[in-house]
Amino acid sequence: MNVLFAGLGSMGLGMAQSLLRADHTVQGVDPNSTRVDMLCADGGVDDLEQADALVSAVLNADQTRAVLFGPDGLADHLRPGGVILSCATVAPAFAREMEAEAQARGLHYLDAPISGGAAKAAEGRLSIMAAGSADAFEASEPLLDAMAETVHRLGDSAGAGSAMKAVNQLLAGVHIAAMGEAMAFAASQGLDPARVVDVISVSAGTSWMFENRAPHVVDADYAPRSKVDIWPKDLGIVTDVASDAALPLPVTQTALSQFRATSQAGMGDEDDAAIAKYVARRGGVKLPGDD
């Protein structure tokens, strides 16, 4: 398939590379020309006049709307009957709005948020939470096969994929915030952070996020794989949707406030494991890397 790929960030680049490995023709679009050059070095092209599919892996709803249907929207470069795979974390109502716009243009739309991280994106082993018409799934199947280890079919219209992603982000954000508190608490008790990771990773208190993020704290490595600033957006979506449903989420609200505070403390562009630094510094506790 001829594919336009918008958003070559930490996950998007790996997804686009996975499409190339599956023999699709891919043109990358990203404000960072270095990322486009990296894709071209792997076989990407820069001259697609018309595409069969458009994959959007940008940051948020505003970027999604702009890249799909804005003044320079890429949907205009899709052939009639082409398909859009929208992978950003957005509210379910927004996904339904984008589906309606795509259908009005004679295009298929798959609400297809992703999970798994940069490493799995590069390996073509993502989990994709997808919802859309049967035609949208059929048109997307070769791309889903290339990018995903697991595709969860959640409904025949947009919205359910984004709702499921919100559930995932609720848990992921809360677990990262809990990891930060746990690592700071352990340090306050004089425990070796590396041993904490060893012990907790095989104990009942573990989580995927603890096992993935706590080693960043041990290594004092806060190079961003997933930035702190992602979480005020994603948990904000969760709490907004819950508010519309009159559902209180006090644990999520607390995690959201912690990420906001970490960002305001100047760590917004660091890896989200930096929430541990924020918690530790408030209590005068030293973590690895602190003088």
Largest sheet features: 5 strands, parallel
Instruction: Indicate the mean pLDDT.
Output: 97
Structural class: alpha/beta
- The tally of domains stands at 2
> What's the total helix number?
12
Instruction: State which percent range the strand residues make up.
Output: 5-15%
The helicity comes to 40-55%
For the CA atoms, what is the radius of gyration? Answer: 20 Å
Runs in which pLDDT lies below 50 for 5 or more consecutive residues are none
- Total strands: the figure is 8
Keywords:
single chain; 291 residues; alpha/beta; Rossmann fold; N-(1-d-carboxylethyl)-l-norvaline Dehydrogenase, domain 2; 2 domains; 5-stranded parallel sheet; 12 helices; 52% helix; 14% strand
Could you characterize the architecture of this molecule?
- The chain has 291 residues and is an alpha/beta fold.
- The protein has two domains: 2-158, Rossmann fold (3-Layer(aba) Sandwich), CATH 3.40.50.720; 162-282, N-(1-d-carboxylethyl)-l-norvaline Dehydrogenase, domain 2, CATH 1.10.1040.10.
- It has helices at residues 12-21, 33-41, 61-69, 92-104, 117-123, 134-147, 160-188, 193-200, 208-218, 230-244, 250-267, 275-282; strands at 2-6, 25-29, 51-56, 78-86, 108-111, 114-115, 126-130, 148-153.
- The strands form two sheets. A five-stranded parallel β-sheet has the order 2-1-3-4-5, sandwiched between helices. It has a three-stranded mixed β-sheet with strand order 6-7-8.
- Strand 3, helix 3 and strand 4 (78-86) form a beta-alpha-beta unit.
- The longest helix is centred in the middle third of the chain and has 29 residues, at 160-188.
- The radius of gyration is 20 Å and the shape is globular.
- The termini are far apart.
- The model has no long low-confidence stretch (mean pLDDT 97).
